[in-house]
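Target protein
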Amino acid sequence: MRILLTEDDPQLGRATQMGLEQGGYAVDWVQSGESARTAVRLHRYACVLLDLGLPGEDGMQVLAALRRSAYDGAILIVTARDQIADRVAGLDAGADDFIVKPFDLDELAARIRSACRRAAGRTREEIVHGDIVIDVAARQVLRAGVAVPLTGKELGILLMLVEQRGRVLSRVQLEEGIYSWGEEIDSNALQVHIHHLRRKLGKALIRTVHAIGYSIDKPDKPDMPAMPDTQARP
């Protein structure tokens, strides 16, 4: 998952970026509202972390501009302002959540997952596709009940394809979702990740659409998590 962090404090910004990257996120960090708006125009982010006290353009102005531009990803306000009026104004302007500094990184990550889950129209942390279960919070994948170890990049690709089942995602779309600024991308890196996913989860899982990209087909019927058998047995 790729996140845009907007924070003008160098020490806090770097610490937050490093903490989220250690949790498996791809994080781009900017220090002004203008840079945030430019980044969102150029890249696709699942979530924007937005400080309110930014130099130049205020965070509330950036928030309003992002929603006017039809950005439909999650936006979390992360600020030192702790007044109820600020919370109400931010939420009414289109923010999905509001967290006050100083914050705990685990709580921030949980709020990011929750906001992104709502933005994607999901109600559960677990995503089920056939015999594959993805626990987003634990970053764990099970196939037929057996844990399958995936790298952070492999998990990111799998999540993107499963969350958009039935759609073909291009190489550029997939790479933009898992790599942040400054990361070197080998020319065949994506193909290698796809190869590993097929080896670990089944060759038929990911379909190659020639000259376009990759897709995971929708199941014939909606996947539901297994429910315990509560019926009385004779």
Notes: The radius of gyration is 19 Å. Residues 25 and 37 are 20 Å apart (CA to CA). Helices lie at 10-22, 33-42, 59-68, 84-92, 105-119, 152-163, 171-178, 189-201. The chain is about 40% helix and 20% strand.
